[in-house]
Specification:
The complex is a heterodimer of chains A (323) and B (269). With 323 residues, chain A is of the alpha/beta class. Chain A has helices at residues 21-30, 63-70, 92-98, 115-125, 130-143, 159-171, 189-206, 217-223, 241-248, 291-302, 314-322, and strands at residues 4-16, 34-47, 52-56, 78-83, 99-103, 177-181, 209-213, 226-231, 234-240, 252-257, 271-276, 280-285, 306-311. In chain A, the strands form 3 sheets. Chain A has a 6-stranded mixed β-sheet with strand order 5-6-7-3-8-9, sandwiched between helices. Chain B is mostly helical and 269 residues long. The chains are: A alpha/beta (323), B mainly alpha (269).
């Protein structure tokens, strides 16, 4: 049996229909109609201990709802989730001791106090033994580069600093699983890199299982071995990054640079002009043509001075996969 | 239980530090409240010193009712006001979900992290002054037993005040908009407790005793202390039941809150 088992998990939301105008508002006081939204529809997957999984999908796909059921916040409508032999929503407290959760844009820090105070609070909240707590504090302060702002009130911190602190407090009690809901949202390039590196070393050193949702495919490429994609509540893909590329890959792009004016583009099968500038083209090649053949063909036809082949970015593949 | 106190003291320390983080606001708040409640007190004082007898109670005795009510509110609200009034916002913003990922009961986590409202120290001091002035003008004679009785009554009353705040916050699990029904129960009905219930019609006496037992907050214990009559035909033991009733409604309000939570967990927000 796997460490995390999700079987036919479903979650429906009932949404009250709102009619327009004052008459609608008055009517809704007495009689409400509901539409049922299936936020998560029959999702199954299993994870081994120590896996790092990217859980992706467009806005409203059901990512956060899944995380909420796994962390014990919400009850599923049907189906089951099991995390290390515990059913999180039935045994919420027991589960809580073993997980760390970071809900992206919502900070769990007290904004008028320094982070070090919140740290101390979490020590007693999780009854972490003193010595282990000290060690973890030092470890994460170092790992996430937090020394400089540990004693400043949270309200003076930047978004990136707050996110680091939130991740640190989610890990002080050595959880076996870490759920991260959009941990890099709104962060600058440097903070993103620190976070990604930190997640990688946490996973490597502590065998922490990590599930993260994100819209930034660079997060996925940097830290995840595996990708689960959902859309409209349903699982569309589950596999390695490599498999994902193979499944959804649709060719590659070639950039052609010309010394002088551009030749005339002729439309032909499997070759499509994506971009055109004064001295270069970007051409999309599809249909399983090898890059070697494509290069020969393009050189023969247009005689460029430089030519670059570029693998399609995960981001572009995902955008197409969402439809 | 040992863990509970350890946790409580950790959160309490943090709450105090948060309050003290803004010394200026903190002091200004207390002084503001003193002026506000001092004004209310003067108003009531002038009013009660000009009327003679209300339902068998003289002005100073009515003032004592107000003193007990305000004191219990100060105690109950200092622990539960932030929690009660912040809950809807925390549910709306999603911050509440974090409380469900902690290894303690979400109610405890919410109450603890909402913080202790030190500002109610001003209500408390005002109520203490009122109570001392009022009681010193009545037949009340302080003995060890009567003081202990008064303390236990204030404790029971504080539990009733707390229960009111907890129960009204439960509405947030169903609708995160403002809820006038809860506000009515929490604030408007309590207005009745500024007067001895013997001045009200029988129906209201019944409601305030058996349905929404606000009369146990101040009327019944004060009746015992001052030797006043309770509504005709009611059990003579009622004036001594405040701590019990307080504990009971407090427990009920938590059960109610848990029921709301269950709804939240199955519907989301």
């Amino acid at each position: 049996m796997s460490f995390i088992e999700v079987t036919n998990l479903c979650k429906d939301y009932r949404i009250a229909k709102q009619e327009k105008g004052i008459t609608g508002a008055v009517k809704s006081l007495f009689h409400r109609e509901y539409t049922v939204k299936e936020a998560v529809k029959d999702v199954s997957f299993s994870l081994e201990k120590g896996e790092v999984v990217g859980y992706i999908g467009p806005n409203g796909a059901g990512k956060s709802t899944t995380i909420k059921m796994l962390s014990g916040v919400l009850l599923p409508t049907s189906g089951m989730a099991k995390v290390g032999d515990i059913i999180p929503y039935e045994n919420r407290k027991e589960n809580a001791k073993r997980i760390g959760v970071v809900f992206g844009q919502r900070s769990q820090l007290y904004w008028d106090l320094p982070i070090s105070d919140t740290f101390d609070l979490y020590e007693s909240l999780y009854s972490v033994p003193k010595e282990r707590f000290r060690r973890n504090c030092d470890f994460f302060t170092e790992l996430l580069d937090m020394k400089d702002f540990l004693h400043q009130p949270v309200r003076q911190l930047s978004l990136g600093q707050k996110m680091k602190a939130n991740i640190a407090i989610a890990l002080l009690h050595d959880p076996e699983v870490l759920y991260l809901d959009e941990p890099t949202i709104g962060l600058d390039v440097t903070s993103k890199k620190v976070l990604r590196d930190a997640l990688k070393s946490i996973n490597a050193q502590r065998k922490t299982t990590i599930i993260l949702t994100t819209h930034d495919m660079d997060d996925i490429e940097a830290v995840c071995q595996r990708l689960i994609m959902i859309d409209q509540g349903q699982k569309l893909f589950d596999g390695t990054l490599e498999d994902f590329r193979l499944t959804y890959n649709d060719g590659f792009t070639v950039k052609l640079e010309f010394e002088t004016t551009l030749p005339t583009w002729q439309e032909f099968e499997n070759y499509r002009l994506l971009e055109q500038a004064e001295h270069h083209w970007v051409v999309k090649v599809t249909g399983g043509i090898s890059s070697k053949d494509a290069m020969i063909e393009l050189i023969r036809k247009y005689d460029p001075i430089n030519l670059y082949v570029q693998e399609e970015r995960i981001e572009d593949i995902v955008r197409r996969a969402y439809g | 239980m040992k863990d509970f106190w350890k946790l409580f003291s950790s959160f309490f320390r943090v709450a105090l530090r948060r309050e003290m983080a803004y010394r200026g606001t903190f002091l200004a708040g207390i002084i503001g409240q003193w002026i506000g409640y001092g004004g209310t007190f003067l108003g009531i004082y002038i009013m009660v010193s000009s009327f003679r007898v209300l339902g068998g109670w003289n002005g100073m005795e009515v003032l004592a009712l107000y003193g007990i009510s305000l004191m219990s509110y100060a105690i109950g609200a200092s622990f539960f006001f932030n929690f009660s009034h912040g809950l809807a916002g925390r549910i709306r913003s999603g911050e509440f979900d974090a409380s469900l990922t902690k290894p303690i009961h979400p109610f405890l986590h919410e109450v603890f992290s909402a913080g202790y409202n030190v500002g109610y120290i001003s209500h408390f001091t005002v109520s203490l002054v009122i109570l001392v002035i009022a009681l010193s003008h009545t037949s009340y004679t302080p003995t060890i037993w009567s003081v202990l009785f008064l303390l236990s009554a204030v404790l029971g009353a504080s539990l009733i005040q707390a229960a009111t705040l907890i129960a009204s916050s439960t509405m947030s699990f169903f609708s995160v908009g403002s809820n006038p029904i809860a506000d009515f129960l929490a604030y408007d009905i309590k207005e009745f407790t500024n007067y001895p219930i013997t001045v009200f019609p029988k129906g209201i006496q019944f409601v305030l005793t058996f349905l929404l037992p606000f009369a146990f907050m101040n009327f019944y214990p004060a009746a015992a202390l001052l030797g006043k009559a309770i509504p005709e035909g009611y059990p003579a033991v009622l004036p001594y039941l405040s701590p019990l009733v307080g504990a009971l409604v407090f427990a009920l309000s938590i059960l109610l809150w848990n029921w709301g939570l269950k709804h939240y967990k199955s519907t989301g927000s």
